[in-house]
Design brief:
This protein is of the alpha/beta class. It has a single domain, classed as CofD-like domains (Rossmann fold, 3-Layer(aba) Sandwich), CATH 3.40.50.10680. The protein is 41% helix and 20% strand. The strands form 4 sheets. Strands 5-2-1-9-10-13-14 form a 7-stranded parallel β-sheet, with helices on both faces. It has a 3-stranded antiparallel β-sheet with strand order 7-6-8. A two-stranded antiparallel sheet has the order 3-4. Helix 1 links the parallel strand 1 and strand 2. It is globular and about 60 Å long. The two termini are 16 Å apart.
């Protein structure tokens, strides 16, 4: 493999990114993370998906919680709570260092891509991790209780309100990170992998960036998505709940339909093997394998199988 671009949201995407990073050199893999979940809290700029991927690639993530750092302490939150501060979004003591430095460097005028590079370098992450854009984009969730910014829906309200629609505030004024467009025009780019992240709130903002979808369609690279829906459920996050509330079938095949003509290949779990024929009938080749990544070996095995699938697609 010469070059792979992986599009990732949070936990599921980070797991596959880690598997890919075990098999590919730093010059062979770029991971693009969704930034429409980003928000400012307690005066600090928080980038949840970037941080989840960064901590995972650094081998520092808390695997039990699925977010934050392993071995974290919470004295800051305890004192914040004592003083009457907003404590609905958890910030660990070590995690705070990232948010403080990011906020400081952004205030000094550094672009987010450079800030992310510095943070990754400090944590020993060799592979390139980049934001989808330098401009602020905010996922807004229209619910039965009114419109909520994504973190207020996801964390503060724990995904309880029924979802009616989604929009990405600021998307029309945003631009894809120039590096992404250069990669998509690069004839050496072998594949774009859409990781098993929430299609509606993790991947959709990336695809909604002006010119990005067309650049994907025009690219000579193979485009492969991995279903985040396994056996009619999401392994992590609200994807399945959102699909049901948006009156969409909660199936892997529906995810493939959602991505539509972008895809050359689609990866589904063994338990959804029966849906592979529907995906194939739509003109997208399908890989059926175990997609649940519980162990380190699972991540590497799935990454290896996907890379082999990419090679096979490229030769046909």
């Amino acid at each position: 493999m010469a070059k792979i671009l992986a599009i990732s949201g949070g936990v599921g995407g980070a797991k596959l990114a880690l598997g890919l990073a075990q098999l590919l050199r730093p010059d062979e893999l770029t991971v693009c993370a969704n930034t429409a979940d980003d928000f400012t809290h307690l005066g600090l700029r928080i980038c949840p998906d970037l941080d989840t991927v960064m901590y995972t690639l650094a081998g520092l993530s808390d695997r039990a919680r699925g977010w934050g750092l392993a071995g974290e302490s919470w004295q800051f939150m305890e004192q914040l709570r004592t003083l009457g501060g907003e404590d609905w979004f958890q910030l660990g003591d070590r995690d705070l260092a990232v948010h403080v430095l990011r906020s400081q460097w952004l205030a000094q005028g550094l672009p987010l891509v450079e800030v992310t590079r510095r943070l990754c370098q400090g944590l020993g992450v060799a592979h390139a991790l980049v934001p989808m854009t330098e401009q602020a984009v905010t996922t807004m969730v229209d619910t039965a209780e009114g419109e909520l910014a994504f973190q207020h829906y996801f964390v503060r309200r724990r995904c309880e309100p029924a979802v009616r629609s989604l929009r990405f505030a600021g998307i029309d004024a945003a631009q894809p990170l120039p590096l992404l467009l250069r990669l998509l025009r690069d004839p050496a780019l072998d594949a774009v992998l859409i990781c098993p992240s929430n299609p509606f709130v993790s991947v959709a903002p990336v695809l909604a960036l002006p010119g990005l979808r067309q650049a994907l369609l025009d690219s000579a690279a193979v485009v492969v998505a991995v279903s985040p829906i396994v056996g009619g459920a999401a392994l992590k996050g609200p994807a399945a709940k959102m699909m049901a509330e948006l009156q969409l079938p909660v199936t892997a095949a529906e995810v493939a339909r959602y991505y539509g003509p972008l895809l050359d290949g689609f990866v589904v779990d063994e338990c959804d093997r029966a849906q592979a024929s529907w995906v194939a009938d739509s003109g997208t080749r399908c890989l059926v394998t175990g997609t649940v990544m519980t162990t380190a070996d699972d991540k590497v095995r799935l990454a290896r199988e996907i890379l082999a699938f990419v090679q096979d697609l490229a030769q046909k």
